[in-house]
Amino acid sequence: MSIASNLDSINASLPENVTLVAVSKTKPVADLMEAYETGQRIFGENKIQEMADKWEQMPKDTEWHMIGHVQTNKVRFMAPFVSLIHGVDSLKLLQEINKQALKNNRIIDCLLQIHIAEEETKFGLDENELNLLLSSTEFKEMKNIRILGLMGMATFTEDQNQIKKEFTHLKSIFDSIQTLQTENCELNTISMGMSGDYQLAIACGSTMVRIGSSIFRGR
């Protein structure tokens, strides 16, 4: 199957309200261009340097999503062009994104990463930390970031019931913070679900899925 036909079949399976992020990390620009020529415009990378290199080579209407864990000292390298940062898991990181966005005269869209998995290795805020962050004065004063919603990653397991429980938990947290909408917080996005579990994620309320291997698989 070609990248184009993989994309066509995935897009055909997605409801209209769900955005597809093509996870293109480690893939050559030629593969991304094949996806681009099929109509895909949103690509997800997990290393800032690789994303910056591809940004320089790809058409400028491409949207770049940072889906990996972000180190504060690397934010400046993507601040001129990144469209959405998925994995914001601390006030300190948000402050740095706000600072670099201001330098570039931009507002950078972000998702707050929530820890929903049972694995310790996954990053993210818990519900209490999320509420503290969103109600803090520091957050309300940030003018160059905009929180669009939440992101979460389920436990890496074959147990569909557990994955469903974790996705449902993220959706309930998302619903519970709807009253916290402010100028820099427009909650409309839940990013959850990858190649193996995106259909379950959508059934649980996901509006953005990150799919890589099902699009770009070994060629």
Structure, described:
An 8-stranded parallel beta sheet has the order 7-6-5-4-3-2-1-8. It has one domain (3-212): Alanine racemase (TIM Barrel, Alpha-Beta Barrel). It is globular. The chain has 10 helices and 8 strands. Helix 2 links the parallel strand 1 and strand 2. By secondary structure, it is of the alpha/beta class. The chain has helices at 3-13, 29-37, 48-57, 75-78, 91-103, 127-135, 137-140, 160-176, 198-203, 213-216; strands at residues 19-23, 42-45, 63-66, 84-88, 108-114, 145-152, 185-191, 208-211. The N and C termini lie close together (9 Å).
Question: What is this entry, summarized?
Answer:
The longest helix is centred in the C-terminal third of the chain and has 17 residues, at 160-176. With 219 residues, the chain is an alpha/beta fold. Strands 7-6-5-4-3-2-1-8 form an 8-stranded parallel beta sheet.
What order do the helices and strands come in, and which of them pair?
Elements: H1 3-13, E1 19-23, H2 29-37, E2 42-45, H3 48-57, E3 63-66, H4 75-78, E4 84-88, H5 91-103, E5 108-114, H6 127-135, H7 137-140, E6 145-152, H8 160-176, E7 185-191, H9 198-203, E8 208-211, H10 213-216
Parallel strand pairs: 1-2, 1-8, 2-3, 3-4, 4-5, 5-6, 6-7
Q: How many domains, as an integer?
A: 1
Please tell me how large the radius of gyration is.
17 Å
Helix % is: 25-40%
> Which fold name fills CATH's third level, the topology?
TIM Barrel
What's the arrangement of strands in the largest beta sheet? 7-6-5-4-3-2-1-8
Terminus-to-terminus distance = 9 Å
Largest sheet: 8 strands, parallel
Assigned CATH superfamily: Alanine racemase
SSE order, one letter for each helix or strand:
HEHEHEHEHEHHEHEHEH
What is the molecular shape? globular
Oligomer: single chain
- Name the structural class: alpha/beta
